[in-house]
Structures are given as structure tokens and as C-alpha cells.
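Protocol step 4 of 6: structure prediction from sequence.
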Amino acid sequence: MSDDLDSGRAGAGAPPPPASATPRLDIAAQRLAASLALLASAALFALMTLTFVDVMARKFYRSVPGALEVSEMLLVVVLFCALPLVSWRGGHVSFELADALYKGRMARYSSMLMDFISAAALGGLGGFGWGNAARTLRDGDVSVYLRVPLGWFVYLMAAMLMLAALLHLVRGLSTPASGRPVAEDAAM
């Protein structure tokens, strides 16, 4: 996974993130991406370790208490910290059914439209999640077995959704005349 992040690629054929005009913004973006990748990687490693220990413990004695709840919380961290990274690199699954029908300006507008639709959907979900997180904390919702407050995980989800929405908006606004987002142009 670190090779994919170091090379600026989310997977085979995925473009690197768009370049910024200011070095300070580039450094901040790189640090944010590294922090999110480190957090997601650490959570994934913890999830793998917990699963291994839990399976081994079942063989010899009994399951690790609260393992299911911790696994769910770690999975939230892994998925939602990786979402902005995938959005920035343009690594989401996409279907190019109509791409052959239009070229040039229409392709540019199509790419922009998809990024704007993604930004609106993710931003709407993030805003809804933010309100839900406040309610969850206010009501004191906790996990059943370990009694961990759930609101902070909902805040993380909402914040990562809003960050991904912002990144899709930036990608949509930075689509050059070629019709491909800046990230795809940089890979070519």
C-alpha cells in the first residue's frame, strides 16, 4: 500500500493527484495525505492483528471481549480515511460507457459534471453526518459492550466525506481543456 501512496498512484493506471500552484499548499496536502494514509494503515494493521488474535483465542479459550465492536470502529477509520485519498487521485470506479461518443469540450464538461455531482453527494452526506454526530454525542450514544462514545467516529466519517467533497470540487474546477482532470494529465 505504501508503494501506491509513494508513487502517487491509487492503483494500476490511476493518476497522481493534481499539482498545486503554491509550494506551501503542496507541502500541506502531502502532509495531510501522509497523515491520512498513516492513520488508515495503522487502523488496518490493528484490525488484522485483532482478527488474528481473536481467531487464535477462539481455538484455545474464548473470543477477545469486544473484538467485534473494535473491528467495526477500526473499519470506519480505514474506509473513511482512505476516501479523500482515493477522491484526490481519481481512483474511484467509473464507467466510461458514453466517453467514446464525445471528445474535446464535451469530454471536459462530462468530467467536470461528474466531479461536481460527486462533490454535491459527498458534501450532502457529510453535512447530514455532521448533524447526526452532534446528536449522537448529545444523546450519549455508546457502543453496547465497550461503552465507547460513537459520536467521535461519526464526526470522523462526516469530516472525511466533506474533505472528499472539497477535493472533488477542486478536481472539477481544475479540469483542463483536454477533458481529463489535472491528475490524469500529470500521469501522461
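Step 5 (inspection) to follow. The radius of gyration is 20 Å.
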